[in-house]
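As a point of orientation, let us examine one representative protein, giving the amino acid sequence and backbone structure tokens.
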Amino acid sequence: MPDGADLSACCGPFLSGETWPPTPVTVMRSRYTAYAMGDSDHLFRTWHPATRPAEVDLDQALEWVGLEIIEVSGDDDTGVVEFAAHWRSGQGPSRQDGAVRERSTFVRRAGRWFYRDGVDTRPARG
């Protein structure tokens, strides 16, 4: 959950389907929370039908440990959220830490925001 927020005050209503995230950044935060909680149904629901996979498979070995919103932009129909989602896997000497860094595009469809796609923004290795 973002910044250690209480689930009921943050993304709980979105994950339960009680309400829909009202902005691209709230969709992004709810999707991060869904990854952290293993809620593939919410990820599927918030993924644009034109780009979503037939199934959402989650990597159970990853523990999601923090979300950093880097930049938010957009208009009434398209939004962009750049973020870094931090993870850890394993324990002891085999423990690994990392981050998914992406510039995600969200589009409004029938009054609701959906994740459409994203571009990896990690620096190139070389």
Summary: Residues 47 and 115 are 5 Å apart (CA to CA).
